[in-house]
Amino acid sequence: MGLPSTDWPVRPVAPIDEAGASAVLATRFGVRGTVRDLGSQQDRNYGVRGEAGEYVLKVANPATRTAELRSQCDAVEHLARALPGVRLPRARSGADGDVVQPFPVDGAALSCRLLDFVPGEPIMDSRYLAPAVVTRLGELAGQIAAALADFTAPETDRFRPWDLRNALEVIETLAPHWPDRARADRVLRAARTAHALVEPHAKDLPVQFVHGDITDNNVVCETPRDGRRMPVGVIDSATSAPAGPWRNWPSPAPPSCITTGQDPPPYCPPSAPSTPYARSPTGSRRR
């Protein structure tokens, strides 16, 4: 399946003012409170401080279908049952009992969800990740992949750029638009090399639903007495994919976020060798 000419790239949702977001919150979820725009890459996210707690009102991009939004919520509930100690953005039911609520804006039909706010500090603010923290990040990624191994959801024929099986097509499409040609060429060479190694075995690799973006942007931590931020939760299930990437490679995101940075990489000890790096052209989303 090639990249769709009409759906790529996905355009961000137009801003909705805080008064409009508050009205949606009250009418669709019966929640009242202060609202502030959190920003996002493709969706619109609003922090909510209500009488009963804190939430995130997430307005979905129209490119994501309602069935996919429900699957993402189902996946989070599946994880919550399997990993009760992990903090997750669970969805709240709306006025009609559905976790996905439609609403109109300027003649357009949009959908939104109200998610539990996941408390903690983002791991991305850490300038150094101790071995124990890196180990916990890997454990968290592995636990989530293992917990989702028996999760099922309806198939979709929509092209998913976060599915690793589509990685080469996505990179080849985006690379010509990257201003830094030398860096783009390095990424292209690496992607083509990896694809050539994996493709002969692709049909034999097991496939499952995964969280495809367990990165420093999407992992939250708590800080114990030793001052090391330890991962305790994840956000952003929007990159979860039905029939998603190979579980043998649940996500390249954890190792990439460890080695990504400046020169030398901020997540490596001062004595570590410099690592060439490149941020994803599409970036990572925060809550």
Description:
The chain has 287 residues and is of the alpha+beta class. It has helices at residues 18-29, 66-82, 131-147, 167-174, 181-198, 253-259, and strands at residues 33-37, 44-50, 53-59, 91-92, 101-105, 108-116, 121-122, 219-222, 230-234. The longest helix is centred in the middle third of the chain and has 18 residues, at 181-198. Residues 242-246 and 261-287 have low confidence and may be disordered.
Helix percentage range: 25-40%
Low-confidence stretches: 242-246, 261-287
| Strand-residue proportion | 15-25%
Shape: globular
Rg, nearest Å? 19 Å
Record the SSE blueprint.
Blueprint: H1 18-29, E1 33-37, E2 44-50, E3 53-59, H2 66-82, E4 91-92, E5 101-105, E6 108-116, E7 121-122, H3 131-147, H4 167-174, H5 181-198, E8 219-222, E9 230-234, H6 253-259
Antiparallel strand pairs: 1-2, 2-3, 3-6, 4-6, 5-6, 7-8, 8-9
Helix pairs in contact: 4-5
Summarize the structure.
The protein has helices spanning 18-29, 66-82, 131-147, 167-174, 181-198, 253-259; strands spanning 33-37, 44-50, 53-59, 91-92, 101-105, 108-116, 121-122, 219-222, 230-234.
Provide keyphrases for this structure.
single chain, 287 residues, alpha+beta, three-stranded antiparallel beta sheet, 6 helices, 28% helix, globular, disordered C terminus
